[in-house]
Specification:
By secondary structure, this protein is an alpha/beta fold. It contains 16 helices and 10 strands. Helix 6 links the parallel strand 3 and strand 4.
């Protein structure tokens, strides 16, 4: 993505790393990559997948598709084909919305290859795709149908994909929700830096800490979360001075105007709520995973109110680490609701009033109910881990 990346690609192309993996970086012409990433993939495809308003689908998108998305996918496909010449029996795994065209380009050169494509974001219902030109919609589906297997995190996204085909499906389409690596979070929980950040949080925490850990992405619905907090404090004066929202946000894609504007909106809304209810909002915008893990241990309620989310790993990571039987408040449009919804307080991501009620419900939930819900989520996350998800991908291809 940067000139430094390109220099490393030229210097270490195909080098083997310390763990024994051969890593190949694929260099693209900078203007093509700019069109690919900042116009075609983000925000247009991302916005369509998440049903966000403002997707850029005009002439600028069509130009970016032809002169950015297509050539970048061709570049990846060439690299994959060259790697298959080194290892003819290898299986190809393609990931996500950036590479919808690559499978067909690979298949055209290597008809016998086994190939799987996993899509980590929501697949919306067919009507959402109508904003894209019909020819491009056709290219996307044609590229995906060149795989042997296409996978999603949930049955909901799988059903939407099958509906988009409008008929018989010639490939296997599966749904397997990804898990976390519990061992990794067991180690992180004991890390000295995490423990130090925990002490800092414990020294200043309110009676009831509401946590959100997200990117500054319109799909994450951060602004409505602040609005819900303000409404809960307005309706329930007893919460004032006792409930605070800690928002740990990773800055995301700020070179794209829609994302930069949403970050500004986040900051304005946080300041407005804090002005009305002093001490109610602690907003921190930084790439600081250590702080996030420390906060995971201390929350009393975790707010995950995404507009749409393919899965949402925070809803699994945080409850696994949490030590206070924290309540999970989970969007009905987060993919993880299929697994965790029975133990979460489920909310409509567009309903600010309902989210305010959920915050109050979490605050007043009896301790034994909190414990039952939290322990059930922890056990589920521990059992259905990342290795199970990987095994499922391999089994799909073997089938």
């Amino acid at each position: 993505m940067t000139e430094e990346d390109r220099a490393v690609a030229r210097e270490r192309d195909g080098a083997t790393d310390e763990a024994g993996y051969r890593l190949r970086l694929v260099e693209h012409e900078p203007d093509a990559y700019e069109r690919f990433y900042t116009v075609a993939a983000n925000p247009t495809l991302w916005f369509v997948h998440h049903r966000l308003p403002g997707a850029d689908v005009g002439a600028r998108f069509t130009d970016a598709w032809r002169h950015g998305y297509v050539p970048v996918n061709e570049g990846f496909a060439r690299a994959v084909v060259e790697e298959l010449e080194r290892a003819p029996g290898a299986t190809v795994f393609v990931h996500d919305y950036h590479l919808y065209l690559a499978p067909r380009l690979i298949r055209a050169r290597r008809a016998e290859v086994r190939m799987s494509h996993f899509i980590h974001i929501p697949w919306p219902d067919p009507d959402a795709w109508a904003v894209l030109p019909g020819a491009i919609r056709g290219e996307i589906l044609d590229g995906l149908l060149a795989n042997d297997v296409v996978g999603f995190h949930t049955g909901r996204w799988r059903r939407n994909f099958l509906a988009a085909l409008g008929g018989d499906c010639p490939i296997r389409v599966t749904a397997h929700p990804i898990g976390i690596d519990p061992g990794e979070f067991d180690r992180l929980r004991r890390d000295a830096k995490v423990v130090e950040r925990e002490r800092e949080l414990a020294a200043t925490r309110p009676d009831f800490l509401v946590l959100r850990v997200d990117r500054t992405d319109p799909a994450k619905n951060v602004v409505r979360g602040f609005e819900a907090l303000a409404l809960a404090l307005e309706r329930h004066p007893e919460l004032r001075g006792r409930m605070r929202m800690l928002a740990l946000l990773d800055p995301s894609r700020l070179d794209i105007p829609q994302y930069a504007a949403y970050r500004d909106e986040i900051e304005r809304e946080a300041a407005a709520v804090e002005a009305r209810f002093p001490g109610s909002v602690d907003l921190r915008i930084a790439d600081d995973f250590t702080q996030s893990v420390a906060a995971y241990t201390h929350y009393d309620a975790l707010l995950v109110n995404a507009v749409y989310d393919g899965l949402n790993l925070v809803s699994k990571e945080a409850p696994y680490v949490n030590e206070r039987d924290g309540v999970l408040i989970l969007s009905a449009n987060a993919g993880s609701v299929e697994e965790l919804g029975r133990w979460a307080v489920t909310v409509d991501p567009f309903d600010v009033s309902g989210q305010a009620d959920a915050l109050h419900r979490a605050f007043t939930m009896p301790a034994d109910e909190r414990r039952r819900r939290a322990e059930s989520i922890r056990e589920h996350v521990r059992t259905h881990d990342q290795s199970e998800w990987i095994a499922a991908q391999l089994a799909d291809l073997e089938g």
